[in-house]
Every structure is written in structure tokens, then in C-alpha cells.
Specification:
208 residues; mainly beta; five-stranded antiparallel beta sheet; four-stranded antiparallel beta sheet; 21 strands; 0% helix
Length: 208
């Protein structure tokens, strides 16, 4: 399986687009990014919600600009490289919505002004059409030990980002459906690093 981020705009909540096969991804209140290792302190969302501006209090930095969302995913930054921690456990937040802490995006700009983000994750949509009990959890596990969560290095070279696993990465992610769980027919979204999964992956669904 080869998974890419093509066709996704910016950011964190998905809303239906002009037809059933397209989605807008919108910024939400409380979102924060890091720029050159500095976390943002406030967000101002533009009218169409696909764009936003961020405030960095007490921070001073020069171009080029290296950005990451969410801010909490970045544990270190040096020389255009972020050390990242991607959660193994993702939280189900509703049908056709993804866990914000797992929605990794990376951005770069060689000069001051606008920084465009691109998704570093692919989103798998799983919908169950049979059964009675609500879904309590879903586990995705790569069959060829491609890393899905844990520690990664994101390096930007000539404006292009690469994501590489580090010691501490793991080969599975869990989507946990708290409360009443996910109902049969709900669209459950799981974020995993975009890339090629040479032998595909295994899916385990639990209703207890």
C-alpha cells in the first residue's frame, strides 16, 4: 500500500467539500505550531478557516522558516531538522474527524511571509457496515515493520521534507473510541505516516 498526502489542503478538522470525494481541512481554536523551534502563543483564523496567522510572543527568528504542527509533536529543533514524537494512541473524536494530536504537518518558507503546510500523514477511513455493538478500538499494524508512531526526524532540504524513523519508533497505532464508542456506520479516521507499506497492514477491531 502506498499512501500520500496529495489533495489535502491545510489543517485539522475535515469538512465535506463540493462533492462526496473531497474535503476541506480547517484550523480550529487552540491550534498551535512551532516555527524554528519556537511555539506559537495565539491563533487568528481567517474567514475561510483554511488559513490562519499565529503569534509568537518573545520569539525572534530569521528566514528560512521551518514549521511544524502540532507544536507539541516537536521535542527538539536544530539546523532545519525537527525531532518529533507521534502518538501511538489516537483518540476518536467523531465520525469523519481525525485525532488532532496525530495530524502532523510540516511547512517551510525561504523568506518572510506565508508558510504553506503539507500533511506528513495519510488518513485511513474505516467504516463498519455490519454488527451491533459499538467499536471500542481499532489497531493498525504494518506487516513489514514500517514505523507508524514514536520518534521520527523530519529534515528539510531545499524546501522538501523527509520523515525518517528513529530508535523508539513503533509499528502500530491504536484508535481508542472512548465513551459510547464509534457506532456502526461511523467513519473512523486513523493517521499514519504517508509512504509505502510494502506488505500492507493488519487491522484489528474490538467492540469490548
Amino acid at each position: 500500500a502506498t499512501l500520500s498526502d496529495e489533495g489535502i489542503e491545510s489543517k485539522t478538522q475535515m469538512t465535506p467539500g463540493a462533492d462526496a470525494d473531497t474535503y476541506k481541512v480547517e484550523w480550529q481554536a487552540g491550534d498551535a505550531v512551532q516555527m524554528n523551534g519556537n511555539p506559537s502563543t495565539a491563533i487568528a483564523i481567517k474567514e475561510d478557516a483554511s488559513n490562519a496567522s499565529f503569534t509568537f510572543e518573545g520569539a525572534s527568528f530569521d528566514a528560512p522558516y521551518y514549521a511544524v504542527y502540532p507544536a507539541a509533536a516537536a521535542t527538539a529543533f536544530a539546523d532545519g531538522t525537527y525531532t518529533l514524537s507521534l502518538p501511538k494512541t489516537q483518540t476518536y473524536v467523531g465520525s469523519d474527524k481525525f485525532s488532532p494530536e496525530a495530524s502532523l504537518m510540516l511547512g517551510y518558507s525561504a523568506e518572510s511571509g506565508k508558510v504553506a503546510f503539507r500533511h506528513a500523514m495519510a488518513y485511513i477511513r474505516l467504516t463498519l457496515s455490519v454488527g451491533d455493538a459499538p467499536v471500542r478500538s481499532v489497531t493498525f499494524e504494518s506487516n513489514n515493520q514500517e514505523a507508524m508512531a514514536g520518534t521520527f526526524k523530519a529534515t528539510c532540504t531545499d524546501g522538501a521534507w523527509t520523515l525518517a524513523k528513529e530508535t523508539g519508533s513503533v509499528y502500530a497505532v491504536d484508535l481508542v473510541c472512548e465513551g459510547e464508542g464509534a457506532a456502526i456506520g461511523d467513519k473512523m479516521l486513523v493517521a499514519i505516516p504517508a509512504g509505502t507499506y510494502a506488505e500492507g497492514f493488519r487491522i484489528v477491531v474490538k467492540d469490548t
